[in-house]
Amino acid sequence: MNPAILFFVVVAIITAIALWIVLRPLLAARSGGPAHAEVNTNVDAIRIELSEARRDQRLGLLSEPALAEAERELESRVLAEAQMEVSSRAPRSKGTAIALAIVLPVLAIGGYAAVGSPVAIVQDTARPQAAMSADQQMAELFRMAEERLKSEPNDAKGWALLARAKASVGMFDGAMQAYEKAAVLTPNDSDLWSDYADAAAGQAQGNMAGKPIELINKSLALDGKNPKALLLRGTYEIQKNELVAAEKSFALAKSLVEPTSAFAQIADNAIADIKSRSGAAPTAAPAEPGKADTSPASTQVASASDAVLATVQLQLGAEALKVATPTAAVFLIVRAAGADRGPPLAAKKITGADIDKVVVITAADAMIGGAGLKAGTDVTLQARLSLGGQPMAQAGDWQSAKTATKLPTKTVKLAIDQPVQN
C-alpha cells in the first residue's frame, strides 16, 4: 500500500478510536455503578458455563441435543442480564455527542495541517505490529485478572471466576491455586467445593481418589443434595467398583436437575453404563465379609467390565530408558478424539516391572462414569513415562506420540521416545 494512503488510514482509525473513547460515555447509557459491575460478572460466569458445556460435549459426556438446550438456556440468561443492564441506565446526551463528533475531527485535521509533517512519520505508521496469538491473548487476560486480584485479595467471586476459567481450558494447576483462595474466603459454598473437586479430578487425570474425593465430601457435608458433587462421588464409586452405591448417587443427582440438563445427561450415561456392566440394575446387597460373591449379577459385572477394548504394547525409547528410575511409572491415557484437555476417558498406571507386558484397557478403567468408553468410540492413545510417578506431566518426563484408533482395537504399539515440553 502507498505510504501516504496507509498514513491516512491509520489517522482515520486513531481518530475513530479517540472519538469512541470521548463519545461513548455520552451516547451509551450510564451505568448504575455496582449493579452494572454485577451484570458484567454474571455474564462472565455464564460464558464460562457455556465453555464447560461445550467441553463436556467434546468429551462425550453431553449429547448434541443436550448441548443445544444448554446453549438456549444460557442465551436466555444472557439476554435477561442485558435487559437488566439496559434498565439501569440514564438518558443519553445525544446533542453534546453530535457536536463533539463534528468539531473534534475538524480541529484535529486543521491543527495537523498547520503544524504537522506527514512525511516524517509515514515509516513509523507503516511498521507492522506483531499480532498476539490466541494463547498469548488468553495468558494476558489471566495475567491482568491476577494483577487485579492481588490488589483486591478478598474478592471471593473474582477468585472463583478465575479458577473456573482456568479449569475450563485445562490449566488445572492455576485453577487449584485460585480455588484454594476462593474456598478460604467462602468456606460454606457447596457449589464452590464441588467445582474445586472437579478441577482436582482434572489435575489427577480423572482419578477421583485422594484430593478429589476429599473435596467432594466437603461439598456434600454442606449440601447433601449438590448435583455436581453427587455426580463426582458416583464416578469415584464406579472407580472403586461400588456399583450399587454409584447408581444411587447418579439417580439422586438426576432427580435434582432438569431432565434435559447436562447433569441429567451425564447421570443417564453413567446409569446406563452401570446397567450394561451388570445386565440389570445392580440392586443386590454386598457379599458378607470373607465370602465370595457368586451371584449371577456379580458374574455379569465382571464379564462386562473385563471386555477388552484395547491392547497396548509399550516400548521405552533409548533416551527414556536411560533416565527411568525404580520410582518411575508409565501412565496410559485414553481420550476422546479431538479432546486434548480435561479428564480422559480412561487412565491406567503401569509400574516399571510391567512395562514390557501387554496392557489391556477395559470398561473398568473408565474415569468418567464409563461415559464414552465403549465400542465404536474414536479415541487417541498416549503413554507417558513419569519419573516421579505422578499423573501430571512434568518437565523431564517422556511420552509417546498420540495414536488415533476406534474401540475396540487390536494391539497398538506406543514408543515412548519424545521429551515432555513444559
Would you summarize the structure shown here?
By secondary structure, the protein is α+β, with helices and mostly antiparallel strands. It has helices spanning 3-27, 34-58, 64-87, 94-115, 118-126, 134-151, 156-168, 172-185, 190-203, 211-222, 227-239, 243-255, 262-278, 296-305, 318-323; strands spanning 308-316, 329-336, 346-351, 358-362, 378-386, 398-399, 403-406, 409-416, 418-419.
Distance between the termini: 41 Å
Strand content: 5-15%
Average predicted local confidence, pLDDT: 74
Computed CA radius of gyration, to the nearest angstrom:
28 Å
- Strand tally is 9
Describe this entry's structure for a reader.
The chain is α+β, with helices and mostly antiparallel strands. Among the domains are: 134-278, Serine Threonine Protein Phosphatase 5, Tetratricopeptide repeat (Alpha Horseshoe); 307-419. The chain is 56% helix and 13% strand. It has helices spanning 3-27, 34-58, 64-87, 94-115, 118-126, 134-151, 156-168, 172-185, 190-203, 211-222, 227-239, 243-255, 262-278, 296-305, 318-323, and strands spanning 308-316, 329-336, 346-351, 358-362, 378-386, 398-399, 403-406, 409-416, 418-419. α2 (34-58) runs parallel beside α7 (156-168). The chain is globular, with a radius of gyration of 28 Å. Mean pLDDT is 74; it is low at 29-33, 121-130 and 280-305.
